[in-house]
Amino acid sequence: MKKTLSAILIVILALAVLTVAGLLAYQHFAGQTTDGPVMENPAAPMLELLNAGWMSEAGVWSAHIGGIEGNTFDLSYRQELVYSGDFTFDFNGDDPNVKTELQFYDTQFESEDGSVCSTMESLYVEKCRMYLDITISKDGGDSVRQQAVLGRADYGKSQPGELESEEIREVSEMAELVAFSWHQSAMSYDGCFQFRIKTTEQDLSDPRLYCRYADPETHERVEIGDDSIGFHWNGMGGIERAAGETWLPVSPERWEELADFLRKAELSAYRATPPGLLDATSSIIAVTWQEDGEEFTNRYGGGTSAHDLLELLQDIAREAYSQKSGQNQPAPEGSWTCSCGQTGNTGRFCPECGKPFDEGDMQ
User: Fold this and answer.
1) Which tens digits make up the pLDDT trace of 59-107?
2) Count of C-beta atoms within a 10 Å radius of residue 17
3) How many CA atoms lie within 13 A of 234 on its CB side?
4) How far is the C-alpha of 234 from the C-alpha of 226, rounded, in Å?
5) DSSP assignment, residue 69?
6) pTM above 0.85?
7) Cα 207–222–59 angle (5° rounding)?
C-alpha cells in the first residue's frame, strides 16, 4: 500500500514538474516572438503614396486608390466612373519616386451602350505622378492611343522631381475680365480644342470669340470665326490685342457670366508638361484681368471646374453662332418663310409682319 502511494506521489510530482517546465518554456519562446522585431510591409511607402485621389491637369481623367487592402483602383472620365478593379505591384525600397508598374487582372472596359471600348495598356507611377496609357476604340472608327498624366490631389506643393507651378494672383469682385483663352492638345481628336475671347483696347465691353472644338454629341469639328485675321495666338501670353472683326461677338451678359464663373472656379495652377511626354495632354488656360488700370494674367492647367467651364464655353459658342445670322442656321423642321422675307417661322402668323401662314409659304 505504501509502495503504491509513493508511486502515485512520484507521478503527481513529475507531472507538476513537467507542467511548470512547459509554462516556463512557453513564456520564454513566446516572449522572444513578441519582443522580437516585427516584419514590416516593404510596399508600405508606395501604398502610402498611392492611396489618395488623382486627377489630370485638364480635369478629364481622375482616379482614386483605396479599399480594405489599399489596392482597389477606381477610374473616372469627366467625373463618371468607368472602371473599378484590383491591382498588384512589386516594390522594394523606400523611395516612392522610382517607376512602379501597376498590374491589373482586367484591363478593358466599355461605355454603357457598348459603342466605345477602352483598354488600359499600362499604368505606372513615377516621381509622384501617375501615367495612364490607354487605347480607345469606337464603333466604325480607328483606335486612338493616348496618355493621361495625373497628379496626386492632395499634393498642393511640388514634390521632388516635379516641375514648379505658376503662382495664381487673387481676383477680386472689382476686377474686370479682359481676355480669355484655352488651348488644349491631345492624342485624341475630341480632346483637342481652342477657345479665345478678347476685348479691344477701344471697347472692353465688346468681346469677340474664336473657337475650334469637337461637338460632344456628333463629334463633328466646329470652327467659329476666322483664325487668320484678327486676334492672334501668342503662346503662353494668351491673345494679342487686335480688332478681331472676323470673330463673332459675345453678348455682355454671357461675358459677365464667364467672368463670374472664373472668379469662383476651382482651377489648378499651370504646370508645364514634363519633357519627353510628347503624347501627353497639354492644356493651358490664360485669363487676363484688369483692376485699377493694371492688367495681370493667371494661367491654369485644369482642375475640378474644367469640365463645367468647357460646357459653358461651348454653350456661349453655340449662342454666338445662332445670333450671327438667321440665314446661316438650318431652319427648324416644318418651318415656313413669309413673303416679307422672315425665315424660320413655326407659328400661324409671321412674327415680323403678322401675315398668316398659307401652303405657298412652306420651305
Assistant:
1) 678 888 887 777 889 888 766 788 888 999 988 777 888 889 999 988 8
2) 10
3) 14
4) 16
5) S
6) no
7) 80
